[in-house]
Amino acid sequence: MGRPNTAILAVFFLAMIALFGGVTLFKGGVFIEKHEGDAYQLIEMVLRVADGQRPHLDFMTPIGFLALAPISAFVALGFGIGKSFVLAQIAVAFVLSVLALRVAVSRLDGVWSFLFGLIVVVLCTALVHGEADRAVSISMHYNRWAWALSYIVIALAMLEPLRDRAPVLDGVILGAGMAALALTKVTYFVAFFPPVVLALLMRRQWRMILAAIIAGVAVGAAVTALVGMEFWYAYLDDLIAVTQSEARQRPGADLSSTITAPAYLGASFLLLGAVVALRQSRQEVPGLLLLLLAPGFVYVTYQNFGNDPQWLYFVAMLMFALRPRTELRNGLGWDMRAVMLVIGVAVLSHGAPSALNLVYSPFRHFFLAEDDFGSLLPRAGLSDDLHAREIRLYRTDGNVPLDRTGTGLDAWKEEADRPPAAELKGEELADCELMVGMTAWFTAASRDLDAAGFAGARLFAADVFNSYPLFGDFPFLQGGAPWYYGGLSGYDNADYVIVPLCPIAPDVRANVLETLTERGETLEEVRRTPLYILLRKMAS
Questions:
Q1: 19, 27, 191, 420 — which has fewest CB within 10 A?
Q2: DSSP letters of 492-528?
Q3: CA distances from 326 to 75, 112, 160, 331, 333 (A)
Q4: How many helices (H) and strands (E) does the chain have?
Q5: What secondary structure does DSSP assign to 427-480, as a single string?
Q6: Alpha-carbon distance 495 to 25, whole Å?
C-alpha cells in the first residue's frame, strides 16, 4: 500500500456522503421507530435555538450548543424538523470529512485511508445511535457526531505523519476539534483531552501544541463574544446539576459493568492485547497512547445510553494500519504482522453488530413502508416530515403493580421492595408508568387543558418531559429543562404544576413532588382528570 491520492479520496468521501445522506433525504421525511421521548426533547431544544434562545441560559441542558445548532439553522431557514435533521447530518459529514481527509492523506496508507473516511461519514449520517436493534431513531445523534470528531482528533495527536507534515494546520484542526467536542458533548472532551495532550508532549509537537492552543482559545473567545461569559457559567452549572442528579447520573450500566460484563469483557481484553501488540511491534509511543486512551474509551461508553463501545472501530483500524511493513517477530517467535491482523479482526468482530447497524440504517429507513406511520407532531404548523409508527403513537399502555390490597399478592409487598408511593399534599398517588403512547397522552391532555381555559399557561411538569408546547398553545418554560435532570429548573417562571397520574417516569414525579414539599411551596388544585392533576402556584 502506498500514498493515497488526495483527489480520489475526496471524491470517495463526497460519494459516501451523497450515498448515505442522499438515500435519507430522498425519503422525503424521517420515520422513527423508537425513542419518541428523546425526539420530543431534541425537537424542543432545536425549536428554542431556532427561535434565538441560548442553551444553558434560556433552558437547562447538558447537551452542547453545537449538537443543536446545525439542525436549528435549517429549521430557521424554513425546512421541516425531519429534513433539517437530515440536512444537518449531511452538513456535519461534509465538514468532518474535510478534516478526515487531512488525517487520511497525511497519516494513513492505501485502503485504510478510505476506511477512515467511511467510518467518519457513517457515524455522521446514520439513523440509529448504535447497538444491534435495527429500529430507526434520531436519538443521541450528538454521540455519533462526537465519536466521528474524536476519531479525527485522536488520530492527529496519536499518529506520526507519514508525509505532508503541516504541524500548524494539524494543530488548528486539533484545537478547534477539541473545542467543538466541548461544545457538543463535554464527556468526550473530558475523556480525551488528557491523552491527546500527552500524545503531543510525547511526540514533542511544540508547534502543533501552540497552534492547537491558539485555535481552541479562538473558538472559546468567539463563543464568549457572541453569548457572553455567563454562557460558560450556565453551561458549567448544568453539567454540575447532572452529575449531582439522582435522576440521571448515568444512562445505562454502571462503570464496572462496562469493563467486566460479559458483553464488554472480551473487548476489554482485546484492547489490552492491542496495546501489547503495538509495543512488541516497536511502536512504543502509539502503544502507550492507546493504553492512556483506554480509560477515556470506557468512560464515554459508560456515559452514553446503550453503552455501545464505538471506539472498537478505531482500534481495529489502528491494528490494520500500523502493522509492521516487514516481518517482525516478538520474543515468543510470533509474526507481529499476523498478530495485529488477528487482533484487528477480533476487535472488528466485537464491534460488527453495531457497525453494520449504523451502515445499514439509512437504507433500511429508505425501504420502510409509510402506511403505518403517523405524524410525531400532530399540532398543526410544527412539522409534517417527522413520523413514528402509529401503534407507538396512539396505543397507550401502562405498567401497574398487581400486588394491590386484597389480591393476595400484597403478602409479599415488603419483599418486593417497591419505592414508596408518590405523595401530593398527603394523598398517595397510584403507582403507574406510561410505557408507550406519549403522543396520544400529550395530545389528549393538551386538548383538555385548552378546552378548560388554560391555553397560554406556563406549565411545569412533574415528569421527565415537559413537552406540552409541542402539542398545544403553551409557551416554552423560560429556564425549563426539556429533559428532567433534577431540581426544579424553570419552576419559578411557571404558572401551574401538572402532575400526570400515569407518568413516563414515576421516580421523577416522586422526586419533583418531594422537592416541592421540602421547599414549602403552596399549591392549589384547580383541575383533576383521569390523566392529570393541575395545581396553581400560590404566593408564599
A1: 420
A2: GG-SEEEEESS-S-HHHHHHHHHHHHHTT--EEEEEE
A3: 54, 18, 18, 16, 15
A4: 19, 11
A5: EEPP--EEEE-HHHHHHHHHHHHHHTT-TT--EEESSSB--GGGTSS-PPPTT-
A6: 41
3-state helix, strand, coil in the chain (%, to 5): 55, 10, 35
Phi-psi region of 28 (alpha: psi -120 to 50; beta: other; left: phi over 0): left
C-alpha cell belonging to residue 113: 485511508
Instruction: Name the H helices within 304-396.
Output: 312-321, 336-366, 390-394
Nearest residue to 428 (alpha-carbon basis) of 417, 439, 436, 419: 419
What is the residue whose three cell numbers read 421492595?
417
Best CA proximity match to 25, nearest among 259, 295, 366: 366
In this structure, which amino acid lies at residue 30? V
Amino acid at 179: A
Please list, in sequence order, all residues whose beta carbon lies within 8 angstroms of the beta carbon of residue 46, skipping any fewer than 6 positions away. Answer: 68, 71, 72, 75, 81, 84
| Nearest partner of 290 among 377, 376, 192, judged by Cα | 192
The set of residues, in sequence order, having a beta carbon less than 8 Å from that of 420 and lying 6+ positions away, is: 510
401 CB-side CA count, 13 A: 20
Break the chain into its structural domains and give their ranges: 6-366, 398-537
Amino acid occupying residue 103:
V
User: DSSP assignment of 261-329, as one string?
Assistant: SHHHHHHHHHHHHHHHHHHHTT-HHHHHHHHHHHHHHHHHHHHSTT---TTHHHHHHHHHHTS-SS--B
- What does the pLDDT look like over 90-125, one tens digit per residue? 999 999 999 999 999 999 988 999 999 999 999 999
Q: Other CB atoms closer than 10 Å to residue 469's CB: what's the count?
A: 22
Confidence of residue 358 (pLDDT cuts 50, 70, 90): very high
Site of grid cell 450528538 = 142
C-alpha pair distances (Å), 292 with each of 157, 199, 246, 270, 285: 13, 9, 30, 15, 11
- Grid coordinates standing for 216? 481552541
Sign for the CA dihedral angle at 179, 181, 184, 185 comes to: negative
> What is the pTM assigned to this prediction?
0.95
pLDDT of residue 249 exceeding 60, the answer is no
Helices (H), ranges, 165-248: 167-184, 186-202, 206-227, 230-243
